[in-house]
Design brief:
Blueprint: E1 2-7, E2 18-21, H1 24-39, H2 44-54, E3 55-59
Antiparallel strand pairs: 1-2, 1-3
Length: about 60
């Protein structure tokens, strides 16, 4: 099963935030909310660019 993972540190931020899910949309929603709240990123285009660059697809990822 494919899972999706976002690690904030992979985007160049000094941050340990990580989210994992089998749903790409769920990971993107959580990562976007995190970027907005904790990194004061308000521009939706910038947030989505950051999330898309750092989103990973992981096969057989165990929680």
């Amino acid at each position: 099963m494919t899972k999706f993972r976002f690690r904030c540190k992979n985007s160049g931020k000094a941050c340990d935030y990580e989210v994992n899910s089998s749903s790409k949309d769920e990971v993107m929603d959580h990562a976007s909310a995190h970027a907005n709240r904790f990194h004061d990123m308000k521009d939706a285009t910038s947030v989505m660019d950051l999330v898309n660059r750092s989103l990973e697809e992981v096969e057989d990822y165990n929680d």
